[in-house]
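hi got a favour to ask and not much time before my train. below you get a single protein, a line of residues and a line of whole numbers that encode the local backbone shape. could you go over both lines and see whether the tokens make sense for that sequence. a few lines back from you is plenty, here it is:
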Amino acid sequence: MGIEGFQGVGSGGSSLAEVGIGLLGCGFIGQVHSNAYIKIPFTCQPPAASPKLVALCDTVAAEEKARKFKYEGFYTDWQRLVEDPHIAVIDNCTPDNMHRDPSIAAAEHGKHVICEKPLAMTVEDARHMMQAAEKAGVKTMLCHNYRFLPAVRLARELIEKGALGKIYHFRGQYLQPYGHDPDEVIENAWYAAGTASGVLLGIGSHVIDMARFLVGEITSLSGLVKTFNTSRKRGASGELETVTADEGNLASVEFDNGAIGVIESSCVCAGRKNEFTFEVNGSRGSLAFDLEDPNHLQVCDTKRSPAELLGFTNVSVTSPGHPLQAAYLPPGHNAGWEYGHLYALNHFLDCVVHDKPVAPYAATFEDGYKVQVVMEAINESSRTGQRIELKY
């Protein structure tokens, strides 16, 4: 018996295109992506498409994870996932050393491909991934999610409009604490465990991408890469293991527009949590951003402020006129870290459904390849002590 006054709404109909999603790898970042797909129809108004969570693929607890995020089914073999005819987009959230083969296979099966950063472990692998996607004619996105935070998008728009004038400097750093203690076990130093990708690939890639996104192509650099703790104990066995992954790095860079910059990333910074900051200085102003305060952009405009008041204005990037706003949040109601992924994935679905170019606002596999070239050059410069002229 129904309750008096209750009226059912029915399933209704939707004019949104449905896009089949196949997620590969459901660890931390795979869960972030799954959460974003679920939220897109509610947060983006209007959403670009309706994500249909067709299948999840993982080698650990795949069925449990598929149920949790309401995927229609699951696989334990990624080759079966990329062959599924109901899937239009493969979202590769595997560890770094698994990015290449599934992404190439997905492209060869006509799937559009999203891949977590870094694109690959080597420049050669990144080149193969880029070329395979180009040959297949599919769309690609490397998930540099920080491009899709509203404050970062506003920074890009201000620079494009010439609000900062001629760009002189970029300085960016990504700092975390995980390996500062030499006695920390290797499992807790993420950059040294698992794929042992290192700090440069793991989080330095974000800084390099941001430098390119805001300022332009990097043409030359000098770099230093350092492993401070060359051995760590394994927690389970207590055995001492050699650490080959870098723990900190920095580079002085020059851009094609004549600007110069400093890029730094480290995982031995006690007191930091997930501090990603950047500052851009130009002839008529500056701007600065801190990921730990993601809803604000610090802006200095020398042409609008009298000398006695000149300094940075703390802009709350939460008003309807600002880019990438959640339609249901009033001004001043802050969005969280995961919104960068949400807007990035929505952008990619929009590009797939309406055949739009993924660049310049999202990173493509070409962008990922170029970031990989920069990272290899930083390592080469550190080994040789020489300044490197970049060739893409």
Observations:
- The radius of gyration is 22 Å.
- DSSP finds nine helices and 17 strands in the chain.
- The mean pLDDT is 95.
- The domain at 150-293+295-330+362-384 is CATH 3.30.360.10 (Dihydrodipicolinate Reductase; domain 2).
